Amino acid sequence: MFKIKLCLCFYLFFICFCFGQTTFSKRINVANKLNTASSFKLYLDSFYIPTMVFENLSPNKYSCSLQKIDINGNPILQKRFKPNSLSYDGGNDLLIRNGKFYISSENDFGLQLQSSLYVFNQKCDTLFTGSYGDTTFYNYGLKILPHLKSKNKLLLFGTTDSTCGSSHSGFDKPIVRIVDTNSVLLQTKIFYPSCSKISLSSADTTGNKGYIFSGGDYNGFITKNYIIKLDSNLNQMWNKNIDTGSSYYNCVTTLKSGKHIFVHNHTDSSKSNSFFWDRITLTKLDENGNIMWRKRYGMPEQYISATKIRELNNGDFIVSGEKYLSSSAININGFLLRTDSVGNLKWWRTYIATTPVKDTIADNYLYDVLQMPDKGFAAVGYATGTSQFGTIQQTWLLRVDSMGCLVPGCSTLSGIEELEKVKNNIVAYPNPFNSELNVSYSFVNGDEDAEIELIETETGRVIEKRILTQKDHKTQFNTKNLSAGVYLIGVQQKNRPSVYFKTINLK
Description:
By secondary structure, this protein is mostly beta strands.
Protein backbone atom coordinates (compact mmCIF):
# COMPACT_ATOMS: atom_id res chain seq x y z
CA MET A 1 0.00 0.00 0.00
CA PHE A 2 2.87 2.36 0.84
CA LYS A 3 4.48 1.73 -2.56
CA ILE A 4 1.21 2.54 -4.34
CA LYS A 5 0.89 5.84 -2.43
CA LEU A 6 4.53 6.70 -3.14
CA CYS A 7 4.12 6.06 -6.87
CA LEU A 8 0.90 8.10 -6.94
CA CYS A 9 2.60 11.02 -5.21
CA PHE A 10 5.48 10.91 -7.67
CA TYR A 11 3.05 10.77 -10.59
CA LEU A 12 1.11 13.82 -9.31
CA PHE A 13 4.34 15.74 -8.71
CA PHE A 14 5.52 14.88 -12.21
CA ILE A 15 2.24 16.04 -13.78
CA CYS A 16 2.32 19.35 -11.86
CA PHE A 17 5.98 19.91 -12.79
CA CYS A 18 5.36 19.29 -16.50
CA PHE A 19 2.26 21.49 -16.56
CA GLY A 20 4.44 24.37 -15.31
CA GLN A 21 6.59 24.22 -18.43
CA THR A 22 5.81 26.37 -21.49
CA THR A 23 5.20 24.54 -24.79
CA PHE A 24 4.44 25.68 -28.34
CA SER A 25 5.44 25.05 -31.97
CA LYS A 26 5.33 28.31 -33.94
CA ARG A 27 6.17 29.60 -37.38
CA ILE A 28 7.73 33.09 -37.18
CA ASN A 29 6.68 35.60 -39.82
CA VAL A 30 9.36 38.06 -41.04
CA ALA A 31 7.82 40.77 -43.24
CA ASN A 32 5.78 38.12 -45.07
CA LYS A 33 8.97 36.91 -46.76
CA LEU A 34 10.57 33.48 -46.96
CA ASN A 35 13.15 33.07 -44.20
CA THR A 36 15.27 30.42 -42.53
CA ALA A 37 17.22 29.99 -39.29
CA SER A 38 19.73 27.46 -37.95
CA SER A 39 20.91 28.75 -34.55
CA PHE A 40 19.80 30.85 -31.59
CA LYS A 41 20.71 32.04 -28.11
CA LEU A 42 18.71 32.73 -24.95
CA TYR A 43 19.78 36.13 -23.58
CA LEU A 44 18.04 38.10 -20.82
CA ASP A 45 14.79 36.12 -21.12
CA SER A 46 14.55 36.49 -24.92
CA PHE A 47 15.54 34.37 -27.88
CA TYR A 48 17.87 35.99 -30.41
CA ILE A 49 17.70 34.25 -33.78
CA PRO A 50 19.98 35.11 -36.74
CA THR A 51 17.88 34.70 -39.87
CA MET A 52 18.33 34.76 -43.63
CA VAL A 53 15.45 36.58 -45.32
CA PHE A 54 14.68 36.08 -49.02
CA GLU A 55 14.21 39.66 -50.27
CA ASN A 56 13.86 38.65 -53.93
CA LEU A 57 13.60 35.24 -55.58
CA SER A 58 14.45 36.29 -59.14
CA PRO A 59 17.21 37.31 -59.08
CA ASN A 60 18.02 35.84 -55.69
CA LYS A 61 18.80 38.45 -53.06
CA TYR A 62 18.99 37.86 -49.31
CA SER A 63 19.37 39.93 -46.19
CA CYS A 64 20.72 39.20 -42.73
CA SER A 65 18.17 39.64 -39.96
CA LEU A 66 18.37 39.41 -36.18
CA GLN A 67 15.10 38.50 -34.50
CA LYS A 68 14.33 39.08 -30.84
CA ILE A 69 11.54 36.72 -29.72
CA ASP A 70 10.09 36.46 -26.22
CA ILE A 71 10.11 33.12 -24.38
CA ASN A 72 6.49 32.49 -25.44
CA GLY A 73 7.40 32.73 -29.12
CA ASN A 74 6.13 36.26 -29.80
CA PRO A 75 8.28 38.61 -31.93
CA ILE A 76 9.63 41.70 -30.15
CA LEU A 77 12.08 43.05 -32.76
CA GLN A 78 12.95 42.02 -36.33
CA LYS A 79 15.51 44.13 -38.21
CA ARG A 80 17.32 43.39 -41.47
CA PHE A 81 20.63 44.44 -43.00
CA LYS A 82 19.96 44.62 -46.75
CA PRO A 83 22.29 46.70 -48.93
CA ASN A 84 21.23 47.23 -52.54
CA SER A 85 24.38 45.94 -54.22
CA LEU A 86 24.92 42.60 -52.50
CA SER A 87 23.10 39.59 -51.09
CA TYR A 88 23.86 39.05 -47.41
CA ASP A 89 23.12 35.47 -46.40
CA GLY A 90 22.54 35.80 -42.66
CA GLY A 91 21.76 33.10 -40.17
CA ASN A 92 24.59 30.61 -39.80
CA ASP A 93 25.73 31.10 -36.19
CA LEU A 94 25.50 33.62 -33.34
CA LEU A 95 27.89 34.72 -30.58
CA ILE A 96 26.96 37.26 -27.90
CA ARG A 97 29.89 39.16 -26.40
CA ASN A 98 30.03 42.41 -24.43
CA GLY A 99 26.41 43.19 -25.30
CA LYS A 100 26.98 42.80 -29.05
CA PHE A 101 25.57 40.12 -31.31
CA TYR A 102 28.04 38.65 -33.83
CA ILE A 103 26.61 36.62 -36.73
CA SER A 104 28.79 34.53 -39.05
CA SER A 105 27.69 33.98 -42.64
CA GLU A 106 28.66 34.98 -46.18
CA ASN A 107 27.87 37.68 -48.73
CA ASP A 108 27.36 37.26 -52.45
CA PHE A 109 29.39 39.12 -55.07
CA GLY A 110 27.48 37.65 -57.99
CA LEU A 111 29.39 34.46 -58.74
CA GLN A 112 31.68 34.75 -55.72
CA LEU A 113 31.20 34.46 -51.97
CA GLN A 114 33.00 36.06 -49.07
CA SER A 115 32.87 34.96 -45.46
CA SER A 116 31.06 37.65 -43.47
CA LEU A 117 30.62 38.98 -39.97
CA TYR A 118 27.51 41.04 -39.10
CA VAL A 119 27.37 42.88 -35.79
CA PHE A 120 24.09 43.97 -34.17
CA ASN A 121 23.21 45.58 -30.86
CA GLN A 122 20.58 44.44 -28.37
CA LYS A 123 17.93 46.44 -30.23
CA CYS A 124 18.78 44.47 -33.41
CA ASP A 125 20.32 47.55 -35.09
CA THR A 126 23.23 46.86 -37.46
CA LEU A 127 26.47 48.29 -36.04
CA PHE A 128 28.99 47.22 -38.71
CA THR A 129 29.94 44.34 -41.01
CA GLY A 130 33.10 42.67 -42.24
CA SER A 131 33.94 40.51 -45.27
CA TYR A 132 36.86 38.12 -45.69
CA GLY A 133 38.42 36.15 -48.52
CA ASP A 134 39.52 36.81 -52.08
CA THR A 135 36.42 37.55 -54.19
CA THR A 136 37.76 35.12 -56.82
CA PHE A 137 36.77 32.18 -54.63
CA TYR A 138 33.97 30.76 -52.49
CA ASN A 139 34.33 31.44 -48.77
CA TYR A 140 31.64 30.28 -46.33
CA GLY A 141 31.36 31.56 -42.76
CA LEU A 142 29.66 28.80 -40.81
CA LYS A 143 30.49 28.90 -37.08
CA ILE A 144 31.73 31.53 -34.65
CA LEU A 145 33.48 31.12 -31.28
CA PRO A 146 35.08 33.40 -28.68
CA HIS A 147 38.86 33.64 -28.67
CA LEU A 148 39.87 32.07 -25.35
CA LYS A 149 43.08 34.09 -24.91
CA SER A 150 41.65 37.52 -25.75
CA LYS A 151 38.27 39.10 -25.05
CA ASN A 152 38.75 41.36 -28.07
CA LYS A 153 39.04 38.57 -30.64
CA LEU A 154 36.70 36.08 -32.34
CA LEU A 155 37.17 32.92 -34.41
CA LEU A 156 35.25 32.35 -37.64
CA PHE A 157 35.07 28.73 -38.86
CA GLY A 158 34.13 27.94 -42.45
CA THR A 159 35.29 26.45 -45.74
CA THR A 160 37.14 27.87 -48.76
CA ASP A 161 38.08 26.70 -52.25
CA SER A 162 40.91 29.27 -52.48
CA THR A 163 43.64 26.58 -52.60
CA CYS A 164 41.68 24.04 -54.63
CA GLY A 165 42.03 25.33 -58.19
CA SER A 166 39.94 27.73 -60.24
CA SER A 167 36.39 27.70 -61.63
CA HIS A 168 34.87 26.50 -58.34
CA SER A 169 35.53 22.77 -58.75
CA GLY A 170 33.39 21.94 -55.71
CA PHE A 171 36.44 21.06 -53.61
CA ASP A 172 37.17 22.91 -50.37
CA LYS A 173 39.17 22.91 -47.16
CA PRO A 174 38.20 24.00 -43.64
CA ILE A 175 39.42 27.49 -42.73
CA VAL A 176 39.67 29.38 -39.43
CA ARG A 177 39.95 33.16 -39.30
CA ILE A 178 40.80 35.25 -36.24
CA VAL A 179 39.22 38.72 -36.30
CA ASP A 180 38.99 41.40 -33.64
CA THR A 181 35.67 42.58 -32.25
CA ASN A 182 35.76 45.50 -34.73
CA SER A 183 35.83 42.97 -37.63
CA VAL A 184 39.50 43.48 -38.57
CA LEU A 185 41.08 40.28 -39.93
CA LEU A 186 44.15 39.22 -37.92
CA GLN A 187 45.02 35.65 -38.96
CA THR A 188 43.92 32.95 -41.40
CA LYS A 189 44.70 29.24 -41.25
CA ILE A 190 43.57 26.45 -43.62
CA PHE A 191 43.35 22.79 -42.60
CA TYR A 192 42.89 19.31 -44.09
CA PRO A 193 45.51 17.32 -46.04
CA SER A 194 43.86 17.63 -49.46
CA CYS A 195 41.02 19.39 -51.29
CA SER A 196 37.76 17.49 -51.06
CA LYS A 197 34.01 18.02 -50.94
CA ILE A 198 34.25 19.27 -47.39
CA SER A 199 31.54 20.55 -45.07
CA LEU A 200 31.99 22.11 -41.64
CA SER A 201 29.09 21.40 -39.27
CA SER A 202 30.14 22.32 -35.74
CA ALA A 203 32.81 24.01 -33.63
CA ASP A 204 33.43 24.25 -29.90
CA THR A 205 36.06 25.34 -27.41
CA THR A 206 38.14 22.86 -25.38
CA GLY A 207 39.46 22.77 -21.84
CA ASN A 208 43.05 23.70 -22.79
CA LYS A 209 41.94 27.01 -24.37
CA GLY A 210 41.90 25.25 -27.69
CA TYR A 211 39.20 24.47 -30.24
CA ILE A 212 37.57 21.52 -31.93
CA PHE A 213 35.45 21.32 -35.09
CA SER A 214 33.76 18.66 -37.19
CA GLY A 215 32.26 18.11 -40.60
CA GLY A 216 31.96 15.71 -43.50
CA ASP A 217 34.22 14.63 -46.35
CA TYR A 218 31.98 13.54 -49.23
CA ASN A 219 33.53 11.12 -51.76
CA GLY A 220 30.68 11.23 -54.26
CA PHE A 221 28.71 8.43 -52.61
CA ILE A 222 29.05 8.62 -48.85
CA THR A 223 30.32 11.07 -46.22
CA LYS A 224 33.32 10.36 -43.99
CA ASN A 225 32.91 12.19 -40.66
CA TYR A 226 35.98 14.06 -39.46
CA ILE A 227 36.96 15.86 -36.23
CA ILE A 228 39.96 18.21 -35.95
CA LYS A 229 41.28 19.44 -32.60
CA LEU A 230 43.45 22.56 -32.30
CA ASP A 231 45.55 24.01 -29.50
CA SER A 232 45.24 27.62 -28.33
CA ASN A 233 47.51 28.80 -31.20
CA LEU A 234 45.45 26.97 -33.87
CA ASN A 235 48.06 24.23 -34.29
CA GLN A 236 46.44 20.90 -35.20
CA MET A 237 46.66 18.38 -32.38
CA TRP A 238 44.83 15.55 -34.14
CA ASN A 239 42.52 14.77 -37.05
CA LYS A 240 40.21 11.76 -36.69
CA ASN A 241 37.78 10.07 -39.06
CA ILE A 242 34.79 8.77 -37.07
CA ASP A 243 32.46 6.44 -39.00
CA THR A 244 30.67 7.10 -42.30
CA GLY A 245 27.13 8.18 -43.10
CA SER A 246 25.03 9.73 -45.83
CA SER A 247 24.56 13.11 -44.10
CA TYR A 248 26.83 16.16 -44.11
CA TYR A 249 25.55 17.07 -40.66
CA ASN A 250 27.24 16.08 -37.42
CA CYS A 251 28.19 17.85 -34.19
CA VAL A 252 31.03 17.59 -31.67
CA THR A 253 30.75 19.11 -28.19
CA THR A 254 33.27 19.36 -25.36
CA LEU A 255 31.97 17.94 -22.07
CA LYS A 256 32.47 19.34 -18.58
CA SER A 257 34.99 16.53 -18.04
CA GLY A 258 37.12 17.73 -20.96
CA LYS A 259 36.14 14.73 -23.08
CA HIS A 260 33.98 15.01 -26.20
CA ILE A 261 30.62 13.72 -27.41
CA PHE A 262 30.01 13.38 -31.16
CA VAL A 263 26.62 12.84 -32.80
CA HIS A 264 26.65 11.63 -36.40
CA ASN A 265 25.14 9.23 -38.90
CA HIS A 266 26.14 5.61 -39.42
CA THR A 267 25.24 3.95 -42.73
CA ASP A 268 24.05 0.38 -42.24
CA SER A 269 23.37 -0.39 -45.91
CA SER A 270 23.02 1.21 -49.33
CA LYS A 271 21.66 0.44 -52.77
CA SER A 272 23.62 1.32 -55.92
CA ASN A 273 25.37 4.11 -53.98
CA SER A 274 22.18 6.14 -54.38
CA PHE A 275 19.97 5.12 -51.46
CA PHE A 276 21.35 4.86 -47.94
CA TRP A 277 19.88 3.58 -44.68
CA ASP A 278 21.39 5.30 -41.64
CA ARG A 279 21.07 5.42 -37.87
CA ILE A 280 21.77 8.26 -35.47
CA THR A 281 24.92 7.47 -33.48
CA LEU A 282 26.56 8.92 -30.36
CA THR A 283 30.30 8.42 -29.96
CA LYS A 284 32.15 9.48 -26.81
CA LEU A 285 35.82 10.38 -27.25
CA ASP A 286 38.60 11.04 -24.78
CA GLU A 287 40.79 14.17 -25.00
CA ASN A 288 42.99 12.45 -27.61
CA GLY A 289 40.14 11.40 -29.86
CA ASN A 290 40.07 7.74 -28.82
CA ILE A 291 36.62 6.13 -28.78
CA MET A 292 35.34 5.38 -25.27
CA TRP A 293 31.87 4.12 -26.23
CA ARG A 294 29.40 4.25 -29.10
CA LYS A 295 25.60 3.89 -29.18
CA ARG A 296 23.23 3.72 -32.15
CA TYR A 297 19.51 4.47 -32.10
CA GLY A 298 16.44 3.17 -33.87
CA MET A 299 16.23 1.19 -37.09
CA PRO A 300 18.09 2.18 -40.28
CA GLU A 301 16.21 4.94 -42.12
CA GLN A 302 16.59 6.42 -45.57
CA TYR A 303 16.62 10.10 -44.57
CA ILE A 304 17.77 11.06 -41.10
CA SER A 305 20.30 13.61 -39.78
CA ALA A 306 21.46 14.86 -36.38
CA THR A 307 22.34 18.55 -36.29
CA LYS A 308 23.21 19.49 -32.69
CA ILE A 309 24.13 17.87 -29.38
CA ARG A 310 24.40 19.51 -25.97
CA GLU A 311 25.35 18.22 -22.54
CA LEU A 312 22.76 19.00 -19.86
CA ASN A 313 23.54 20.01 -16.28
CA ASN A 314 22.87 16.47 -15.01
CA GLY A 315 25.13 14.89 -17.65
CA ASP A 316 22.33 13.82 -20.02
CA PHE A 317 22.51 14.64 -23.74
CA ILE A 318 19.91 16.34 -25.95
CA VAL A 319 20.09 16.01 -29.75
CA SER A 320 18.21 17.85 -32.51
CA GLY A 321 17.73 16.72 -36.10
CA GLU A 322 15.27 15.72 -38.79
CA LYS A 323 13.88 12.52 -40.28
CA TYR A 324 11.07 11.04 -42.32
CA LEU A 325 8.27 10.18 -39.91
CA SER A 326 7.88 6.70 -41.49
CA SER A 327 9.09 4.77 -44.51
CA SER A 328 5.91 5.74 -46.42
CA ALA A 329 6.00 9.45 -45.48
CA ILE A 330 6.97 12.08 -48.04
CA ASN A 331 7.60 14.93 -45.61
CA ILE A 332 10.34 15.52 -43.06
CA ASN A 333 9.77 16.06 -39.33
CA GLY A 334 12.11 17.64 -36.82
CA PHE A 335 13.12 15.53 -33.84
CA LEU A 336 14.60 15.77 -30.36
CA LEU A 337 16.36 12.81 -28.75
CA ARG A 338 17.43 12.59 -25.11
CA THR A 339 19.81 10.08 -23.55
CA ASP A 340 21.42 9.65 -20.16
CA SER A 341 25.13 10.29 -19.59
CA VAL A 342 26.17 6.91 -21.02
CA GLY A 343 23.98 7.11 -24.09
CA ASN A 344 20.94 5.10 -23.00
CA LEU A 345 17.85 6.45 -24.76
CA LYS A 346 15.27 8.19 -22.56
CA TRP A 347 12.92 9.47 -25.27
CA TRP A 348 12.86 10.36 -28.96
CA ARG A 349 10.04 12.50 -30.38
CA THR A 350 9.18 14.08 -33.72
CA TYR A 351 7.51 17.46 -34.33
CA ILE A 352 6.09 19.80 -36.95
CA ALA A 353 5.21 23.50 -36.81
CA THR A 354 1.57 23.86 -35.75
CA THR A 355 0.92 27.60 -35.21
CA PRO A 356 -0.60 29.60 -36.85
CA VAL A 357 -1.06 26.88 -39.50
CA LYS A 358 -0.49 23.15 -39.13
CA ASP A 359 0.87 22.26 -42.57
CA THR A 360 0.98 18.46 -42.48
CA ILE A 361 2.80 18.09 -45.82
CA ALA A 362 5.54 20.70 -45.29
CA ASP A 363 9.10 19.74 -44.36
CA ASN A 364 10.24 20.67 -40.85
CA TYR A 365 13.92 21.01 -39.88
CA LEU A 366 15.52 21.53 -36.44
CA TYR A 367 19.15 22.72 -36.26
CA ASP A 368 19.76 23.87 -32.69
CA VAL A 369 18.45 23.01 -29.22
CA LEU A 370 19.03 24.25 -25.67
CA GLN A 371 17.62 23.57 -22.22
CA MET A 372 15.42 26.25 -20.67
CA PRO A 373 15.50 27.40 -17.02
CA ASP A 374 12.25 25.45 -16.42
CA LYS A 375 14.11 22.24 -17.51
CA GLY A 376 12.15 22.04 -20.74
CA PHE A 377 13.74 22.49 -24.17
CA ALA A 378 13.68 25.04 -26.98
CA ALA A 379 14.73 24.28 -30.55
CA VAL A 380 14.95 26.31 -33.75
CA GLY A 381 14.99 25.61 -37.48
CA TYR A 382 12.56 26.27 -40.29
CA ALA A 383 9.40 24.86 -41.83
CA THR A 384 8.81 24.93 -45.59
CA GLY A 385 5.61 26.11 -47.22
CA THR A 386 3.01 24.49 -49.47
CA SER A 387 0.29 25.92 -51.71
CA GLN A 388 -2.23 23.47 -50.26
CA PHE A 389 -2.05 25.11 -46.82
CA GLY A 390 -1.08 28.60 -48.04
CA THR A 391 2.19 28.62 -46.08
CA ILE A 392 5.67 29.95 -46.95
CA GLN A 393 9.09 28.90 -45.65
CA GLN A 394 9.54 30.42 -42.19
CA THR A 395 11.64 30.24 -39.04
CA TRP A 396 10.28 27.57 -36.71
CA LEU A 397 10.58 27.94 -32.92
CA LEU A 398 9.68 24.96 -30.72
CA ARG A 399 9.32 24.62 -26.94
CA VAL A 400 8.60 21.30 -25.23
CA ASP A 401 8.65 20.10 -21.63
CA SER A 402 11.42 18.03 -20.01
CA MET A 403 9.90 14.83 -21.46
CA GLY A 404 9.81 16.27 -24.97
CA CYS A 405 6.05 16.78 -24.88
CA LEU A 406 4.05 19.58 -26.51
CA VAL A 407 1.03 18.45 -24.50
CA PRO A 408 2.14 18.32 -20.82
CA GLY A 409 2.14 14.80 -19.40
CA CYS A 410 1.91 13.18 -22.84
CA SER A 411 4.32 10.40 -21.88
CA THR A 412 3.55 9.82 -18.20
CA LEU A 413 1.33 6.83 -18.94
CA SER A 414 1.68 5.98 -22.61
CA GLY A 415 5.47 5.93 -22.45
CA ILE A 416 5.46 3.61 -19.44
CA GLU A 417 2.88 1.33 -21.02
CA GLU A 418 4.86 1.22 -24.26
CA LEU A 419 8.06 0.41 -22.37
CA GLU A 420 6.38 -2.38 -20.43
CA LYS A 421 4.90 -3.77 -23.65
CA VAL A 422 8.37 -4.13 -25.15
CA LYS A 423 9.82 -5.55 -21.92
CA ASN A 424 7.08 -8.16 -21.64
CA ASN A 425 7.62 -9.29 -25.23
CA ILE A 426 11.30 -10.21 -24.88
CA VAL A 427 12.72 -13.35 -23.30
CA ALA A 428 16.45 -13.96 -22.74
CA TYR A 429 17.61 -17.31 -21.32
CA PRO A 430 19.39 -18.82 -19.52
CA ASN A 431 20.08 -15.95 -17.19
CA PRO A 432 22.76 -16.18 -15.85
CA PHE A 433 24.30 -17.65 -19.03
CA ASN A 434 27.62 -19.25 -19.91
CA SER A 435 28.42 -20.49 -23.43
CA GLU A 436 25.25 -19.41 -25.20
CA LEU A 437 22.39 -16.95 -24.78
CA ASN A 438 18.98 -17.36 -26.44
CA VAL A 439 16.74 -14.40 -27.22
CA SER A 440 13.16 -14.46 -28.51
CA TYR A 441 10.74 -11.62 -29.18
CA SER A 442 6.95 -11.83 -29.38
CA PHE A 443 5.72 -9.63 -32.22
CA VAL A 444 2.26 -8.11 -32.48
CA ASN A 445 0.61 -7.85 -35.89
CA GLY A 446 1.92 -4.77 -37.67
CA ASP A 447 5.10 -4.57 -35.56
CA GLU A 448 8.26 -3.39 -37.31
CA ASP A 449 11.37 -5.61 -37.29
CA ALA A 450 13.31 -5.56 -34.02
CA GLU A 451 17.06 -5.08 -33.73
CA ILE A 452 18.65 -7.08 -30.91
CA GLU A 453 22.08 -6.05 -29.59
CA LEU A 454 24.34 -7.82 -27.10
CA ILE A 455 26.19 -5.04 -25.25
CA GLU A 456 29.12 -5.12 -22.83
CA THR A 457 27.99 -2.97 -19.89
CA GLU A 458 31.40 -1.81 -18.72
CA THR A 459 32.43 -0.25 -22.05
CA GLY A 460 29.15 0.11 -23.94
CA ARG A 461 30.67 -1.96 -26.77
CA VAL A 462 28.19 -3.77 -29.00
CA ILE A 463 29.36 -7.40 -29.12
CA GLU A 464 26.93 -8.49 -31.81
CA LYS A 465 23.58 -7.47 -33.28
CA ARG A 466 20.78 -9.35 -35.01
CA ILE A 467 17.54 -8.44 -36.79
CA LEU A 468 14.43 -10.35 -35.71
CA THR A 469 11.27 -10.45 -37.81
CA GLN A 470 7.72 -11.74 -37.40
CA LYS A 471 8.81 -14.86 -39.30
CA ASP A 472 12.17 -15.37 -37.61
CA HIS A 473 11.74 -14.13 -34.04
CA LYS A 474 14.42 -16.16 -32.23
CA THR A 475 18.19 -16.01 -32.19
CA GLN A 476 21.14 -17.45 -30.27
CA PHE A 477 24.39 -15.66 -29.35
CA ASN A 478 27.59 -17.67 -29.01
CA THR A 479 29.08 -16.37 -25.75
CA LYS A 480 31.89 -18.88 -25.14
CA ASN A 481 34.61 -16.25 -25.52
CA LEU A 482 33.00 -13.54 -23.43
CA SER A 483 34.45 -12.55 -20.07
CA ALA A 484 32.43 -12.94 -16.91
CA GLY A 485 30.37 -9.88 -16.10
CA VAL A 486 27.14 -8.00 -16.72
CA TYR A 487 25.78 -7.64 -20.26
CA LEU A 488 22.73 -5.95 -21.75
CA ILE A 489 20.30 -7.14 -24.38
CA GLY A 490 19.14 -4.03 -26.25
CA VAL A 491 15.84 -4.05 -28.17
CA GLN A 492 15.16 -1.30 -30.69
CA GLN A 493 12.11 -0.84 -32.87
CA LYS A 494 11.17 2.14 -34.98
CA ASN A 495 9.00 4.69 -33.13
CA ARG A 496 9.30 2.82 -29.83
CA PRO A 497 11.53 3.45 -26.83
CA SER A 498 14.68 1.34 -26.61
CA VAL A 499 14.71 -1.28 -23.85
CA TYR A 500 17.77 -2.85 -22.18
CA PHE A 501 17.59 -6.25 -20.47
CA LYS A 502 20.31 -7.09 -17.90
CA THR A 503 21.99 -10.51 -18.23
CA ILE A 504 24.91 -12.03 -16.30
CA ASN A 505 27.68 -14.19 -17.67
CA LEU A 506 29.08 -16.72 -15.16
CA LYS A 507 32.32 -18.55 -15.88
